[in-house]
Amino acid sequence: MARYSVNVPPRVLAGLRRHAAQAATPECCGALFGTTDGDDFDVRALVGLPNEAADPARYRIDARTVQRVEGRAAGAGVSVVGFYHSHPVGPAVPSTTDLELACPGYLYLIVEAATGAVRAWRLAADRSGFAELVVTSRADAA
Amino acid sequence: MSARIQLPPVLREYAAGAAEIDVEATDVGGALAELSVRHPALRRHLFTDGGELRGYVKVFLNDCDVRDLDVGAVTPVLPGDVLLIVPSIAGGDHPADAFSPEEVQRYARHIVLGEVGWDGQARLRSARVAIVGAGGLGSPVGLYLAAAGVGTLGIIEFDRVDVSNLQRQVLYGTADIGRPKVEAAAERLRDVNPHVDIVTHPLRLTSANALDILADYDIVVDGTDNFPTRYLVNDACVLLGRPYVYGSILRFEGQVSVFDASSGPCYRCLFREPPPPGLVPSCAEGGVLGVLPGIIGSLQALETVKLIIGRGDTLTGRLALFDALTFRWRELKLRRNADCPVCGDAPTVTGLIDYDEFCGLGEPDMETSPQGQAVPQMTPEELKQRLDGGDALLIVDVREPFEWGIANLSEFGARQIPLDEVLDRRDEIDRDADIVVYCRSGSRSAGVVRQLRSHGFQKIWNLKGGINAWSRDVDPTMPTY
Fold it and tell me: Which residue in chain A has the smallest CA separation from B111?
C-alpha cells in the first residue's frame, strides 16, 4: 500500500522540536502552513498557538483561533494544511483522545517531547483510525 | 424556510465539494440533521454514534457561537440565516498509554529496539490477548506476554492445579496444588507485571460461549491441545476475524503456526476434519517432554508479540515442526483452501457447531462413531459387580507397554494387546467370551471396540472412562496418570 508523504523542511522541524521542548504548558500546539494536493503535503511554516485546554494533558485550539489563522494563511498565499501538538510522555502516535476529536482532511504532526521524534498522521475517512504519512525533510527549494 | 450552511474546506469533500448548502429547517438542530441526510458521508464527522455533535465541531449562527447544542439545537433559523461550521483542533497525550518512569525502566530493552520502540510498546500496552488453556503451552505464553507488557490478558481455564502438571506447567508451584488454575495463574502473572490487566474466565470454552468471550480480544492463543477445542477456536477466530496462534505438542514433537483467515489459511484449510478418536493420543496418554511446551509456547508468545507490534514475518501460511530428539526444524508452506468449509469462498460452516460430536467424542453412555455406529459401554462399577459375581470376562488392555507399568488390571486376568496390533491379532481373542476393552480414559479403547464389532465381535464393551475411572470409582489405590 502506497503511503503518502509530507515534507517538513529542517528549519521547520527544528522549530517544532524547540516549541515542544520549551512550551510553557506541558502540551504545545500550533498550525501548519503549506500546500497539499489532497494526498501529499508540503509544510512551509508553523505558527505556534496558545493551548486553550484546561487539562494539562490536553491541547485545544478554539474554532475562533482556527478561523483567524486560516485568514492569516490566505493572506500569505498558502493554506492551513494541518496542526501539530506534542506528547510530553507518550509516543508520537495519536491517542484515543486525538482520534475522538480529530477533524478530517487536516495533517496532524505529533512531536514526542522526550526524543524529538516527529510523526505525521491523517484521519481515515471512516474515522476508524489514523493513516501514517512518511515524513521527509528536504530543505526548501526557494 | 431556507438557511445557508457554510462548510470549512476540510469537510467539503464529504459534501460533493460544496462550500455552501441551502437547507430547509426551522432550527439549528434541524438544519444539521437535514445536512446529514443530504450528505450522509458528513454525518459521521459531525455526529458521534450516539447522535451528539462531535467535540471539534463549532457552529456559528450569523457569527454567533451556538455553544450548547442541547439548547442551541432549538435555536430558530430564519430565512437568510447563515450557519458556519468551523472546526476546533484538540486532542491530547496518551492518558492511559502514558508510560510511568517505572514502566519506561521495565520496558527499556524493548524501547531501545527500533522495531519495537515507543510505538510497539504502546501497541503491546493496548493489546488484548486471550489464552485458551493455562497448561503446558499457556504457561510460557502467559509469562512472556505479561512480561512484555500486553495490556490485557484473558485466561480461559476450568481446571485445578494437579501435581502431574508441575513437570511442565511453569506458571505453578507445589503450593498451588488443588487451586483453580486461573486463580494461581492470575496471582503469578500480576506478580510478573502489575501493569497487566488479567481477566480470568474460570470455565470451559464451548460453542455456546466462545464467540462472546473471544470477541473481547484482538488475538487468540490456543494452549489446550485437544481437537474439539482446536476446531472450536479456529472456527470462532475465522467468524470473528481474529488471528489464531496455534501450538501443539506430543512426546518430543511440536508444531506452531499462525492461522489468520484475513491474510492466509485457517486450521481447517490444513486439516479439514479431525483424525478418528483414539488415533492421536493426548499428552496424558502419549506423554510429553516437559521442556517441549516451554519451547513451543514461547514461540506462540513470540508470534503474538510480532502480530501486535506489526513487525517481522509471522508464521501465517507456514507450519513449523520441531523434533526435539533429533533437534530438527522443518517448515511447511500452507495455502488457503478455496473450498474450506469455514474460510473458503462458499463457507458451509457459518456458526459454531458441536465440536465433541464433530471430533467423534460422543455422548457418555453410547459413544457414537462419525458413521453413527454405537459403542456399548460398561462402567467400572458394572465391571466390578460382574467380576465379583464370578463372571469370566476377557479383559483386553490396548495401551502401550509403558502404560501397563503404571497401572493395570492384571489381577483380573487382563491381557495386553497394544492398539496398533489388535486387528492383526484378533484371532487370539475368544469371540464367544464377554470382552471388555480398556485404555487410560476410554477413548482409544472405544475405537478398538468399534473396529472389532465391524469384524464380527458381538459381546464386547468399552470400559467407560478407562482405567482412570476404575481408580476413581472402584479402586483408589490404583495410580492415575
Answer: A91
CB B339 within 8 A of CB B352: no
pLDDT at residue B285 in the model = 74
Active-site residue list of B: 283, 439
Chain A residues closer than 8 Å to B66 by CB: none
**Rounded-to-integer distance, Cα B335 and Cα B269, Å:** 7
Taking CA atoms, A113 is separated from A16, A33, B30, in Å, by 10, 21, 44
Decide if A115 and B118 are in contact by the 8 Å CB cutoff.
yes
Lowest mean pLDDT among A88-97, B153-162, B164-173: A88-97
User: Which chain B residues touch A60 with a CB distance below 8 Å?
Assistant: 88-90
The rounded percent of chain A whose pLDDT value lies above 70 is 95
Cell of A131: 493513516
- Cβ within 8 Å, pair A55-B92: yes
> Residue B95 burial (CB < 10 Å; 0-12/13-18/19+)?
middle
C-alpha cell at B62: 450569523
Smallest Cβ distance to B86: which of A63, A86, A95? A63
- Return all residues near B42 (Cβ < 8 A) that are at least 6 apart: B11, B14, B15, B35, B36
Cα dihedral angle (A25, A27, A33, A39), rounded to 10 degrees?
-170
Q: Is A57 on the interface with B (CB under 8 A)?
A: yes
pLDDT tens digits, one per residue of A112-134: 887 788 999 999 988 888 888 99
Buried b (16+ CB within 10 A) or exposed e, B267-284: bbbbeeebeebbeebbbe
Interface residue A25 vs chain B (CB under 8 A): no
Give per-residue pLDDT as tens, B314-341.
Answer: 999 999 999 999 999 999 999 898 889 9
Distance CA B27, CA B35 (A): 12
Instruction: Tell me how crowded residue B384 is: count the other CB atoms within 10 A of its CB.
Output: 16
Q: Looking at the complex, does the CB of residue A44 fall below 8 Å from at least one CB of chain B? A: no
Shortest CA distance to B24 belongs to which of B79, B75, B83? B79
Query: Which residues pair with residue B179 across a beta bridge?
Result: none
Q: What pLDDT is recorded for position B392?
A: 86
CA distance A138 to chain B (A): 23
In the beta sheet, which residues pair with residue B82?
B4
**What whole-number distance in Å separates Cα of residue B311 and Cα of residue B116?**
8
Question: Is the per-residue pLDDT at B372 higher than 70?
Answer: no
pLDDT at B133: 96
Phi/psi of residue B123, nearest 5 degrees: -65, -40
What contacts B62, CB < 8 A, 6 or more positions away? B81, B82
Q: Strand, coil or helix: what is B184?
A: helix
Q: Is A91 on the interface with B (CB under 8 A)?
A: yes
- Are the beta carbons of A29 and B10 separated by less than 8 Å? no
Strands B128-132 and B64-65: unpaired
Q: What count of other Cβ atoms lies within 10 Å of the Cβ of residue A76?
A: 11
Task: Residue B54: list chain A partners with CB under 8 A.
Answer: 100-101
